[in-house]
Amino acid sequence: MNSVQGLLAASVISIQNSCFIYPACQNCFSRLILDSRRFSCLKCGCTGGAKDASYRYRLSLKVADTNDLFDITVFGSCLDPFFGVTAENLQRYLQDFNQLSGETNTESFTRALVQAVETCFIGKRFIFGV
């Protein structure tokens, strides 16, 4: 699953979703099911306290090379340099911001984050391991 079969030089056309961070199982990296107190992994059965959940980057992109369009999803710590922090720390910053601001509607903050990610990626050319 982690072996690179080839390289693709392509430009980012668009960001496919606005959810860049997800709670991830430490064993299998699958998305965790979270409630206010617990997490569980449907794939491997791992469970624990919600405050102990780990977070991981997941950035879905539409990219184009000279001939074709592709949907590519980039996972994990390779995105740390672009965001400037780990997914774990960005999630913590988001939670702290929401608590400190007292903001119940996080839509404007999410929009600002999406706009920042679009500015960083759209129109830029990257080499993707596929």
What does this structure look like?
By secondary structure, this protein is an alpha+beta fold. It has one domain (13-121): OB fold (Dihydrolipoamide Acetyltransferase, E2P), CATH 2.40.50.140. Helix content is 26%, strand content 34%. The chain has 3 helices and 8 strands. The protein has helices spanning 80-83, 87-101, 107-121; strands at residues 7-15, 21-24, 33-34, 38-40, 47-49, 54-64, 69-75, 125-129. The strands form 2 sheets. Strands 1, 2, 6, 7 and 8 form a 5-stranded antiparallel sheet that branches. A 3-stranded antiparallel sheet has the order 3-4-5, with no helix packed on it. A hairpin with a 3-residue loop joins strand 3 (33-34) and strand 4 (38-40). The longest helix has 15 residues, at 87-101. The model has no long low-confidence stretch (mean pLDDT 90). This is DDIAS protein. One of its GO terms (biological process) is negative regulation of intrinsic apoptotic signaling pathway in response to DNA damage. Residues 9-98 form the Replication factor A C-terminal domain.
